[in-house]
Specification:
alpha/beta; five-stranded parallel beta sheet; 177 residues
Length: 177
């Protein structure tokens, strides 16, 4: 299986990257090809809502999303990796998700598998509810099949993450595919 991890943290060596790395290690050990794309380093403009794509492409904008769209469409699984920023994914990852608009039929027609990897300082039972609801909506709308999630509460710093159970959960999720 070809797995594409969309890593949306501006902290390139932070807790999100740690989870993504462990997930990738487990998935590679299970025999899968894994690419991690740090979307923060890409030049992707926000969707303008022009609908020139007709919700099926091509997009009126031309930037790094052109290549990323092709990578998404050649994958079997899409993993969303993000720290929780004010109860949602980071703006950098949200820009990418918004630009899915021009490829909706192509993405949904692929019946991709998906997963969510996320971290936050807070570990209250309600902390991740909005992000999980958004992820569940994306999965349903894009006809994906959720293969699991790692909800890393109490991972506000890399040191906290190293001491948590969540790195093993990420590895185990990747390995289980």
């Amino acid at each position: 299986m070809r797995i594409l991890v969309l890593q949306g943290s501006p902290n390139t060596n932070g807790s999100t990257a740690m989870l993504a790395g462990e997930f990738a290690r487990g998935a590679r050990e299970a025999g899968h090809a894994v690419d991690i794309v740090d979307v923060v380093g890409l030049d992707i403009a926000p969707c303008t809502g022009c609908v020139a794509c007709g919700f099926g492409g091509p997009c009126a904008l031309s930037d790094d999303m052109d290549d990323l769209r092709e990578r998404i469409l050649s994958s079997d699984m899409l993993v969303f990796a993000t720290p929780l920023y004010y109860f949602g994914m980071t703006a950098q990852l949200k820009i990418v998700v918004d630009r899915f608009c021009s490829a909706n039929p192509s993405i949904s027609g692929r019946h991709l598998k998906s997963a969510l990897l996320t971290v936050a300082w807070n570990d209250d039972d309600w902390t991740f509810k909005a992000l999980e609801a958004h992820y569940d909506t994306l999965v349903g709308y894009l006809n994906m099949r959720d293969c699991g999630r790692v909800i890393g509460g109490g991972c506000g710093t890399p040191a906290m993450t190293r001491r948590s159970r969540h790195l093993k959960e990420a590895y185990d999720l990747g390995r289980s595919l």
